[in-house]
Design brief:
Length: 357
């Protein structure tokens, strides 16, 4: 039976980069012995304009019915003044929580051809290949109670609640350890167990899960030190597992070690392996419509989709190698261009990957 992939192009450069991913999917289907049905849905600002909501019921139904979802990006300045409930970003958050996509995988890989793109010294970042596993549907971003209240003497107080259930910690830890088994077999769990009780439990439960994976080495680090170590000596990490908020911050930091927002993919998975795949960058309204956006983060998101949701790890590796090939050929979109390389358009980059495949 063929798999179902839902495409959600979204806003800004979203449609441009998804178009390149579709070319790649067509090539894989034609030559890779794989089969799937592609369906497109509206999300974000595009959905708001057409239907008045950033996550229409039909889109949610399509996403629920799919084996995997490929998303471009949402948002743009024209929707910034909207009520937060109908802002484009709400569509993205809605799909993540509705589908229970609790495991956010954010690799930070520095391609050898792009070492110069990092702001850090080549010896610190060359060969960098780490995976941040961020808990995505719990913690302080979802904890109740939350809000802004008025105290007795009239002063306002903002409050959020950091909560983690044992089961939530256990399932994200298992994802991290399972991934580590296929990598360098090292997991670093990041918390603030010296100050926050919820993460004291985090540390305890992750340690319990480690016993199920005797071949994987577990270490613990406080988040402030982890931030420092990521910049000081990022290659000491293999897999990092952490809470929703710490993961949000650390994964952006890790991404920037590679210096190229247009290169980095991500996956958000549920319990069964179904997932949503998307580049980590946003809708880049400043360059939308110009045909210059880098489609490689989206194409590498397709590779993650092949690996984690479509049971096609060999094709995933083939696609990643094809991206390496086009970089070897010196092809660069403007965000990763440096002198001595050849600047190409979004479409030409997608074509080159298809050719390399
Ligand atoms: P952004 O990631 O869209 O852009 C930051 C900078 O990186 C811009 O200069 C942009 O031109 C460049 N850039 C991003 N992706 C690129 C690519 N593939 N190729 C070449 N250059 C690229 O972040 P920004 O500007 O903060 O946000 C723009 C909009 O995107 C906002 O509405 C924001 O809310 C939304 N956003 C959406 C996300 C998502 O859909 N997952 C994530 C982050 C932001
Ligand atoms: Mg972020």
């Amino acid at each position: 039976m063929s798999k179902k992939i839902t495409l959600l192009a979204g806003d800004g450069i979203g449609p441009e980069i998804i178009a390149e991913a579709v070319k790649v999917l067509a090539a894989l289907r034609e030559h890779g012995g794989l089969d799937w049905v592609l369906e497109s849905g509206l999300i974000g600002g595009a959905a708001y304009e057409a239907t008045g909501t950033p996550l229409p019921a039909e889109t949610l139904a399509l996403a629920q019915d799919a084996d995997a979802i490929l998303l471009g990006a949402v948002g743009g300045p024209q929707w910034e003044t909207l009520d937060i409930k109908v802002r484009p970003e709400k569509g993205l958050l809605g799909i993540r929580s509705e589908l229970g996509l609790f495991a956010n995988l954010r690799p930070a890989i520095l391609y050898p051809q792009l070492v110069g793109a990092s702001t850090l010294k080549p010896e610190v970042v060359s060969g960098l290949d780490l995976m941040i596993v961020r808990e995505l549907t719990g913690g302080i971003y979802f904890g109740q109670p939350r809000g802004v209240r008025r105290l007795e003497h009239g002063e306002r107080q903002g409050f959020n609640t950091l909560v983690y259930k044992e089961s939530e910690i256990r399932r994200i830890a298992r994802v991290a350890f399972t991934i580590a088994m296929k990598r360098d077999r090292r997991v670093c769990s990041v918390d603030k167990a010296n100050v926050l009780e919820a993460t004291e439990l985090w540390r305890e439960v992750v340690t319990e899960v480690a016993a199920e994976f005797p071949d994987v080495e577990l270490s613990h680090m406080y988040v402030d030190n982890a931030a420092m170590q990521l910049v000081r000596a990022p290659k000491q990490f293999d897999v990092v597992v952490t809470t929703n908020m710490f993961g949000d911050i650390l994964s952006d930091c890790a991404a920037m070690l590679t210096g190229s927002i247009g290169m980095l993919p991500s996956a958000s998975l549920d319990q069964s392996g179904k997932g949503m795949y998307e580049p980590i960058h946003g809708s880049a309204p400043d360059i939308a419509g110009q045909g210059i956006a880098n489609p490689l983060a989206t194409i590498l998101s397709v590779a993650m989709m092949l690996r984690y949701s479509l049971e096609a790890p060999i094709q995933a590796t083939r696609l990643e190698k094809a991206v390496g090939t086009v970089l070897d050929q010196g092809l660069r979109t403007s965000d990763i261009y440096s002198s001595g390389t050849t600047q190409v358009s979004t479409g030409a980059m997608g074509d080159a990957v298809v050719e390399a495949l």
